[in-house]
Design a protein that fits this description.
Length: 289
Amino acid sequence: METVTTIAAVRAKIHAARSGGARIGFVPTMGNLHAGHLALVDTARQHADLVVASIFVNPLQFGPLEDLDAYPRTPDADRAALEDHGAALLFAPEVTEIYPEGTALQTRVSVPGLGDVLCGASRPGHFDGVATIVTKLFNVVGPDVALFGRKDFQQLTLIRRMVQDLAIPVTIIDVPTARAEDGLALSSRNQYLTPGERARAPALYRALERAAGRLVAGDNDHARIVADAREELLAGGFEPDYVEIRSRDSLGQPEPGEPELVVLAAARLGRTRLIDNLALTVNAGRTQP
Ligand code: AMP
């Protein structure tokens, strides 16, 4: 696997591969890779001849009081893991390569309807930062397919929408959430948890499972289900930010009787904000990780 740090070098490498007829798969990440990221790389290999990964901790998607500086950076281990999983090219630019004039950009990409709700409501500007960097990375790499995790369900939905609205010529493929054995969704931020918090953290997934189970079984009292999940989180020592039942495709409020749903939650455990979600089909007895 080759590592490059400039836009020009990525373009040159990809141009060469593409003229040989290779299909390009792209996995954008912020590094500190775990099994969830690597599942994206594995899936990319099934859809592409050449897998390009990027590692870039994007300052534009962090709020002023968020963990940009503390965000875990493990470049050597990341490179080894990507190589192990068959990535061919790593793009790991410095901030100055991506934002040579700083982050006070003239141009931003915004998907207001989807970017302002749920996590966007408590993280203003976050999804503009995501949409802007993903657009820029798509323009640099020019992938045929790009892979995103269901773990960040709102991000996935927003990127699908952006790609459709802006006619970006890429196919978005989603990958199930990789979880620890106790159900906790893998996340680079899990390492902020103290041992006591880590032991309590799977309660988030359990609350979602219980809510999804009730919905699958036909319980349509969404307000009650959400209130019970919040209570469960509070009892588990979480400070819930939101628990919501939404339409799976649009993330809008579901119509009565709508079968394709997703339960999403964000909650703070100590200083760590955790998110998770479960997609489900009502009465079909099925939930998706
Ligand atoms: P990040 O490095 O957190 O920006 O994540 C990069 C990509 O990995 C995004 O598409 C995430 O949705 C995906 N991802 C992160 N955690 C997981 C997980 N536990 N399972 C599957 N995908 C994940």
